[in-house]
Amino acid sequence: MNYAERLENVTVLGASGKMGSGILLLTAMEMADLSLKPENKDRQFVLNAVDVSNKALDGLMKYLKVQVQKAAEKKIVQLRKVYENNADLIDNKDIVDRYVADVCAIVRPTVVLESAYASGLVFEAVIENPALKIKLLSQINKNSANAPWFFTNTSSIPVHELDEKAGLGGRLLGVHFYNPPAIQKLVELIRAASTKDELVEFALAYSKNLRKIVVPSNDFAGFIGNGHFMRDALHGIAEAERLSKEMPFAEAVYMVNRATQDFLIRPMGIFQLIDYVGLDVCQYIMSVMAERFPGETIHSPLLDRLIAAGVKGGQFSDGSQKDGFFKYEKNRPAAIYDPEAKQYVPVASFQAACDAKMGPLPQPALSWKSAVKHPKKEAALEEFFAKLAAMSSPGAVLAMRYGERSREIGLKLVSDKVAQKEEDVNTVLLSGFYHVYGPINNYFKREMVK
Description:
50% of the residues lie in helices and 12% in strands. By secondary structure, the protein is an alpha/beta fold. The chain has an eight-stranded mixed sheet, sandwiched between helices. Strands 9-10-11 form a three-stranded antiparallel sheet.
């Protein structure tokens, strides 16, 4: 079965979700592009969008039309060549409308799982619940005569466990897209020891066609991305708890968040990132990892406490940010939750005092936005962090400790053989988390940290 044949009948499970909708969008356009090639004119391409709610599927189709139209407008030159033999399509608008129609015609929204039984490829993108994943994968496998291939978007559960418990015989591969899949360039590819070579070869070709950056991760819970992020987050939480013995909790969170964003030149602070992913999602990923790394404490009682109080973070369906550690106004942090008072404390009430206590940034200051576009980025980073290492202010010391711990986490992922090489760890953080430098670097060697 060649590449096009494998994509003739595909199913996405959890198609209306945050990850599933992006995977469906990318796959639908790839299938449509294949269908428009002359050599595939006799093939019928079907993409089953499976979810539990018809209302959610209606929303999915609206999302799909909007996103495909945007994509079509960006590649109108290419589409003009594709449709050049169609005399009815003259204006760009006509071509865009036709492409949107061709893509949407491939997608079959349904709440019926049985539609997946005819597929040769199944993308699993349901919630991070091993029992549910195993149940769905097993049911499809037992009722299909096609010996389908399965791609799981799990962000933490070892692939070999899902493969073995669902009885898939090596026909499962971890294909971990980053959120949102349509925009994020990174894909982590996780193969179990039993995963068949042909699945990996196909996934590489598929990812290449989607113009994704592929990083292989070995099959350990959390993989590279969450393996680093969860431990990084735990360090941030521990630092805030340590500082909260000297100052109010909200101020401690603010200082750690600012140290990780402004002093470490990241796109957002660690507590904003936890909010973006969701406190409950982080808690679950940590629980999966903790069970499989018994010699390491991968758990936060503080997260448990906040989640029990209803502080969960995450996003609304329109993409706006829900309140978590921070309360957001127009998607900007405005207040920080105090678990003792059980209320949010306005950042404006203490920001100036905290900034003064942390001390100044190295000069010339280097923001994340300016670093991304800097013509001599490496030299600018070296100068910034050399100055930071020479400073003794609380903000500089906090940031250097944090950077050193981040580096330590990255190196351990390599020594534990989660990542195959240091470059892979750095690529995941650069591509998947939009950092401007990888955690394994010379800026935060232990001898530089006070």
